[in-house]
Every structure is written in structure tokens, then in C-alpha cells.
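Re: that backbone. C-alpha cells:
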């Protein structure tokens, strides 16, 4: 089923400034893969925002954020109209999310000689997990880890550095990033499987009730039409996969 044309109410909710302001998480290297000459982010996430702006018939203004947490913090401050970040329960308190348009596998890396063999072995007393705080997978771990200790830092690089410097038992992260990290650590291993799949979605402030319904339909159409898959291929975003139908 095709997404409907945006109603006057939807346009009013999403374009109060005359443009669509799209919050973009700059720290996700799979969704923002480069920058244009003018400094604007380029990648699957900005292109999804551009498609939404095209359907609304308005210019697109990209609003970059250093982290998903900073983007989410602005949900009620009239800074952006849509925000492209991982959909997690903590964020859903202030943001109405579509279903995911793409997914990224999250898993663990362990050092050489580690007795940890499986995902299930990680959540045990005495296990310390280095994680980027307020990342989508970090929020998932906050909700689900019961026995291990989360060691939170602000950035992906800091998470890796902490894991190495403090000789922690586990590094949590997105599988594509861990594939790069494991090359720097002789004998280290990435565990099979995943503890979660980060659901990359389009969100809008909860007050935009009509816009939220329209955005949900647009995202489903973008998946079904093959657009999301084409964007992943266009930007060579290896590690992203098109999310299942909602």
C-alpha cells in the first residue's frame, strides 16, 4: 500500500519553519558515511530525511548532533522535526518512532584467552562491559543486563580505549565497528550471534501525532519499494540490513 500524500495537519506539524529540520546522529558511521563540500552529512540517514522532505514538498535542513543522546535530549525543545536514531524505550517517552527502516547487529568482543565463549556467558557477576553510554545498544544493555557491570563512556573510541587500558572482560558494540577493532587486538574474538539489533528509525516529537502516523506509512513504503536497500548499496554501508516489514 502506498503512503498517503501528507495532509495539511501533517505538513503543519513537520514544517513549522518552512523546512523539514532533520536531526542526524553524526556518530553512527554506517548511517553517515561522509560529508559534502559544505559540511552537510551524507549517507543513508540524510537520504531518508531528503526523501521525507521531498514528499512534504519543502526544503531539507539537516541538524547534526554528535551523539544520539544529544539528539534525543532535544525532542521537546523545537530544534528538529524528525530525528533519525535508534528506537529505544527510554527515547520513546518523548519521541514517537516509526518501525525501523534498517538494522545493525550488536554483539561483543572479548580479549585473547577469554573464557567467555557465547553471548549468554557475558551477563555474569564479575564481568565488566565497556560500552558507549546512551548509544542505542547501550540503552538496550541498561534494560537487560542483570549481573555484569556496564562501564559507560561517551564515544566509540573511548569505549575501545577503556576496554584495552583497564583490561575489561568485554567490549560491546556494533558488529561492523568490532570487525575493525578486533584487527588491533591479537587473539581477540567477536562472539557469534547478537545481543540485539539496533533499530534505526525515524522519530518525531510525541506532540506530532498525525505526522507520526504518516511517517510510519512512509517508512514502510520506502522499505517495500526497495529504496532503503538502494540507499544502503549507494553508500556502501556494509553492516546495515533492511528492517523487516512492521
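Recovered sequence:
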Amino acid at each position: 500500500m502506498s503512503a498517503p500524500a501528507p495532509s495539511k495537519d501533517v505538513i503543519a506539524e513537520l514544517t513549522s519553519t518552512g523546512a523539514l529540520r532533520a536531526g542526524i546522529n553524526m556518530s553512527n558511521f554506517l548511517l553517515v558515511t561522509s560529508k559534502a563540500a559544505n559540511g552537510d552529512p551524507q549517507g543513508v540517514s540524510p537520504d531518508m530525511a531528503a526523501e521525507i522532505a521531498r514528499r512534504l514538498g519543502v526544503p531539507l535542513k539537516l541538524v547534526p548532533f554528535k551523539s544520539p543522546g544529544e539528539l534525543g535530549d532535544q525532542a521537546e525543545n523545537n530544534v528538529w522535526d524528525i530525528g533519525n536514531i535508534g528506537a529505544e524505550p527510554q527515547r520513546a517517552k518523548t519521541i514517537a518512532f516509526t518501525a525501523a527502516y534498517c538494522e545493525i547487529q550488536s554483539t561483543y568482543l572479548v580479549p585473547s584467552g577469554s573464557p567467555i565463549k557465547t553471548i549468554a556467558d557475558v551477563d555474569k557477576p564479575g564481568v565488566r562491559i565497556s560500552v558507549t553510554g546512551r548509544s542505542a545498544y547501550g540503552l538496550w544493555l541498561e534494560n537487560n543486563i542483570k549481573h555484569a557491570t556496564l562501564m559507560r563512556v561517551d564515544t566509540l573510541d573511548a569505549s575501545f580505549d577503556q576496554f584495552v587500558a583497564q583490561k575489561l572482560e568485554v567490549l560491546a558494540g556494533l558488529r561492523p565497528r568490532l570487525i575493525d577493532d578486533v584487527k588491533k587486538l591479537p587473539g581477540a574474538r567477536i562472539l557469534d550471534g547478537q545481543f540485539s539489533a539496533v533499530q534505526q528509525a525515524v522519530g518525531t516529537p510525541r506532540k506530532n501525532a498525525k505526522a507520526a502516523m504518516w511517517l510510519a506509512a512512509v517508512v514502510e513504503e520506502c522499505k517495500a519499494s526497495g529504496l532503503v536497500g538502494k540507499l544502503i548499496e549507494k553508500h556502501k554501508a556494509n553492516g546495515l540490513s533492511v528492517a523487516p516489514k512492521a
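The chain has a mean pLDDT of 96. The longest strand covers residues 196-205.
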